Amino acid sequence: MTRFDGVQALVFDVFGTVVDWREGVARDAAPVLAGLGRRDIDPRAFADAWRRRYQPAMEECRSGRRPFTRLDVLHRENLDGVLRDHGIDPATLGEAALDDLNRAWHRLDPWPEAVAGLTRLKRRFVIAPLSNGNIALMTNMAKRAGIPWDAILGAEVAQAYKPQPEAYLRTAEILGLRPEQVCLVAAHNGDLKAARACGLATAFVHRPTEHGPEQATDLAPSEAWDVVARDFQDLAHRLGC
């Protein structure tokens, strides 16, 4: 645990690590699809298809081909694309319904132990999201779900999408801390690898059903991360909270 002697803040990946995006998006998409007479579309498959557009959309910003654009805007553009992929004209829904469905990402539920685990971790550490989600999205999610963040940080604050180094380094700077005083908690090995390259401590948390029962990625730590935990309660125990 010596790597954690100087750690003062835990920053968290959110989609998949703190909240179950797949079930939340599918829950909100199901009645919309049914209302369109498209019961042939599996809401979970629809959520997966929407999520597949996530990284390519952010890469447009990371590459410099597009200025930094907050995730709510990217999600909304991606929603239009997913609907068209399924043979649905977005105009059929109307702007109000499209905007409401887009806010499904604001209404995601935490994993069952997440809030209790975060509450324990907060006793010892500053806790904040280091998410690609924008400020309004993270704030609304936290308010609805009772997620006890000390601050709302992440891509919009840093003006950089993970895994760009600026996303990690600017977050530490905003907290007034050196990189080694900050630990990224994530269920994704790639995120942790990028954080470690920037000097942050790392904690891997297992989320083996983020992508559903047949998930094939991030089922185990790919490197010797500083801490490996089953969930947030286990992480709190391992960090003495």
TrEMBL record:
CDD domains: HAD_L2-DEX. InterPro entries: 2-HAD, HAD-like_sf, HAD-SF_hydro_IA, HAD_sf, S-2-haloacid_dehalogenase. Pfam families: Hydrolase. One of its GO terms (molecular function) is hydrolase activity, acting on acid halide bonds, in C-halide compounds. Keywords: Hydrolase. This is Haloacid dehalogenase type II.
